[in-house]
Amino acid sequence: MKRIGVLTSGGDAPGMNAAIRAVVRKGIYHDLEVYGIYYGYQGLINGNIEKMELGSVGDIIHRGGTKLFTSRSLEFKTEEGQLKGIEQLKKHGIEGLVIIGGDGSFRGAMKLTEKGFPCVGVPGTIDNDIPGTDFTIGFDTALNTIIQSVDKIRDTATSHERTYVIEVMGRDAGDLALWAGVAAGAESVLIPEKKEDFDDIIGRIESGNQRGKRHSIILIAEGVGSGVEFANKIKEKMGLETRVTVLGHIQRGGSPTAADRALASRLGAKAVDLLMEGKGGRMVGIQNNQIVDHNILDILKMERQPEVSMYHLSKELSI
Ligand code: F6P
User: Fold this and answer.
1) With 90 as the cut, is the pLDDT of residue 112 above it?
2) 127 catalytic, yes or no?
3) Catalytic pick among 12, 103, 127, 129
4) Per-residue model confidence as pLDDT tens digits over 182-227
5) How far is the CA of 173 from the centre of ligand 1 (A)?
6) Contact between residue 75 and residue 45 where contact means Cβ atoms under 8 Å apart
7) How far is the CA of 216 from the centre of ligand 1 (A)?
């Protein structure tokens, strides 16, 4: 394989630039030509393809977002769109593709794989909702953004003795809320994977009040529902003064942490190794701190579960 391409797809995540940089630098180091495909699958269809040089990825390792831009392409969900994409790859002599993104992006990779085009998926999403890897690129940075925000909110929550509901991202997964809940010492964590009894939450607030804790921080994953509605439910039930913060897209930005930069570099480089070995239809990941790869079709059939031990720990430590 002498020519490979790289694209980012779906929601951007801090660390994607570090992964792009690793693909380009590793490829050039091994005498490959590396092509950047801008604007994800839509850019592939439109032929937004440019040869990358070592300098193309200079000074981006510390930058959030993706220098290749991204998109969510409806056209690529169609057979015709996928064939147009393959046409473009062939036109540029590209023989293998690294796709950095989440599960939606990997479905596109699966379609290309089924059409005989070698692809390797690199899990890049803040949601950490991809099976086959302990962590996705962007998750650690988003976690740090959340806990910095929660720490700030805790100051005012204690000063006013209020109950704060903080809504975090994660799409249908609860990892961001769960890990941030433990790391920030939230009194309660609500995740879509675990049905939480409302009365338990109320009971925890009341028992905290009885021992003199006059404020609460409740993290709710967006997959559970609206933080505003949940805060209103608490206010109606307890008459407590509540406030809500929806963290939104600040969780998607920021300079990637060292952990995310290192993970992105390792996974991007591994993806190039696999293509050089002629292996497509794979997804790279990290498990027990080892870089691994899986059949991408298997990954898409798997259901990812949150770290149950973290869930129980969050309950124990917020007693
Ligand atoms: O998948 C990453 C993510 O940030 C989710 O956590 C969130 O639900 C979604 O993207 C938001 O999508 P958009 O950026 O299109 O609003």
Assistant:
1) yes
2) yes
3) 127
4) 999 999 999 999 988 888 888 888 888 888 888 899 999 999 999 9
5) 11
6) yes
7) 27
Indicate if 140-253 has the same CATH topology as 3-138+256-301: yes
What count of residues does the chain have?
319
User: C-alpha angle with apex 244: 236 to 142, nearest 5 degrees?
Assistant: 140
3-class DSSP assignment, residue 79: helix
Q: Which of 141, 169, 175, 191 to mutate to test the pocket of ligand 1 (most atoms within 8 A of CB)?
A: 169
How many angstroms is it from 261 CA to the middle of ligand 1? 21
Question: Is residue 21 over pLDDT 90?
Answer: yes
Measured by CA distance, the residue closest to atom 9 of ligand 1 is: 171
Q: Could you report the per-residue pLDDT of 248-279, keeping only the tens digit for each?
A: 999 999 999 999 999 999 999 999 999 999 99
> What is the CATH number assigned to the segment(s) 3-138+256-301?
3.40.50.450
Contacting residues for 265 by C-beta, under 8 A, at least 6 apart:
18, 19, 21, 22, 61
User: Does residue 64 line the site of ligand 1, with CB under 6 A?
Assistant: no
| CA 171 to ligand 1 centroid distance, Å | 6
* All structural domains of the chain with their residue ranges: 3-138+256-301, 140-253
- Superfamily per CATH, domain 140-253: Phosphofructokinase domain (3.40.50.460)
Question: What distance in Å separates the CA atoms of residue 305 and residue 211, rounded to the nearest whole number?
Answer: 34
d(CA 99, CA 268): 10
User: What is the per-residue pLDDT for 200?
Assistant: 86
